[in-house]
Every structure is written in structure tokens, then in C-alpha cells.
Amino acid sequence: MTTFQLRRLRLRTGEQLREQVEVEIEPLVLGGQEYRSEPARVPAGLTVTKASSGTVFELSFGVRLEGPCFRCLAGAALELPIRAREYQATSPGDDPDLRSEYVRDDVLELSAWARDALVLALPDKILHDPDCAGLCPVCGKDLNVEPHAHEETRGDPRWSVLDELREKL
Ligand SMILES: [Zn+2]
Ligand SMILES: [Zn+2]
After folding, report:
1. 154 is in which domain, residue-wise?
2. How do the pLDDT tens digits run along the chain, 169 residues long?
3. Do 154 and 121 share a structural domain?
4. CA–CA dist 109, 49 (Å, integer)
5. Within this chain, do residues 137 and 124 fall inside the same structural domain, yes or no?
């Protein structure tokens, strides 16, 4: 887990610190499947700006996420640019809007922040190809490899009632 010490920063109002940091991106579990950043540690730009009422934190990095396709489970990879911003007031009191959940005791929790920012940037479905055909709902075969359709199952229940009536007549 990557953290950044804020105590040694002695920024005055209006001052800004720009630093290159390396952030560990922890694996994500989505829909029971694991997705990993490749590589696990990514270079990121961190900017800390001291304002009169508090501090603004900005983080930007690029990530390549690898894991199974939502539809067919083949290997999928996704490259995403991430930009995130947090604000921590000097005296936040009890107001959650004035407090960053990633700032704790003069420590900025970079890994947790990067992970949450990454989750927010994810598409609805991670696909190995936008046109992935998925797995056949009848037999489970990969429809990308073996495109096929099954004949309508015989003995449609809607007709069985008629069959019964016919037998009675
Ligand atoms: Zn797929
Ligand atoms: Zn099938």
C-alpha cells in the first residue's frame, strides 16, 4: 500500500508541490472476478496546493487493467487515464464535505485513493472486444469461436394445453 507523508510538507498559502510518485494499485474484485493493474506499481503525478482554507490534492496516472471478459471470460485488457481531486479543509470540523477520506493523521492514502478513482472510471462491462458475442446460454460454448444457434426446443408449453384438449375430444 502506498502512502504519502504530509507532515514534512510545510506549504504556505498559494504554494504548490508537484511530485512524481509510484503508486501500488491493488487488485480489484468485480462480479467475483479479479482484475489487476499491469504493472502493479504505476508512476503518478501528485500535486498538493495549499489554499487559505485547506489543501487541494490532485493525482493523475495511467493504468492498464487485466482480467477476464465479462461475457466470455477470455483475457481482457483496458487502458485508462485517471485524474482525481480531493480537498481537505484545515479545520474540517464534522463536515464530511470538507474532509478527504484519504487523509488520515497527516498521511495521504494514495493506494486507496487511486483504487477508488480507478473503480469510478471503469466502463459498465469489461469486454475483451466491444463486439464480444459471449457464451451460448444453452450449451455454454464460446460464441466467438463457434458461432451457432440452437433450434427452438420442441414441446413448447403453449401448445401442450391444446394437445391435452385434442386428446380429450
Ligand atoms: Zn469476450
Ligand atoms: Zn450453444
Report:
1. 133-169
2. 999 999 888 899 999 999 999 999 999 999 899 999 999 999 999 999 999 999 999 999 999 999 999 999 999 999 999 999 999 998 888 888 899 999 998 899 999 999 999 999 999 999 999 999 999 999 999 999 999 999 876 556 666 666 666 666 6
3. no
4. 17
5. no
Please indicate, yes or no, whether residues 110 and 35 belong to a single structural domain of this protein: yes
Cell reading at 14: 498559494
Question: Do 72 and 150 fall into the same domain?
Answer: no
Rounded distance from Cα 145 to ligand 1 centre (Å): 10
Ligand 1 centroid to Cα of residue 135, in Å, is 8
Whole-angstrom Cα distance, residue 119 to residue 41? 16
Q: Which three cell numbers stand for residue 83?
A: 485524474
Ligand 2 center–CA 5 separation, angstroms: 56
